[in-house]
Amino acid sequence: MKRIGVLTSGGDAPGMNAAIRAVVRTALSNQMSVVGFKRGYNGLLMKSLTTEDDYVEMNSRSVSGIIHKGGTMLMTARCLDFLEESVQKEAVRNLRALGIEGLVCIGGNGTYAGARALNNLGMPTIGVPGTIDNDLNYTEFTIGFDTALNTAVEAVNRIRDTGDAHERASIVTVMGRHCGDIAVHTAVACGAEMAIIPEVPWTLEEVADTVHKGVISGKRSMILIFAEGAQDSLKTDLKALKKEYPKLHITREHMTSSQYAEVIEELSGHETRATVLGYTQRGGSPTANDRILATRTGAHAVELLKNDIGGRAVGIKGNKIMDVSLDEALSPMVFDREYYDLVDLTGYVR
Ligand code: F6P
Question: Which atom of ligand 1 is nearest to the CA of 176?
Answer without folding.
Answer: 6
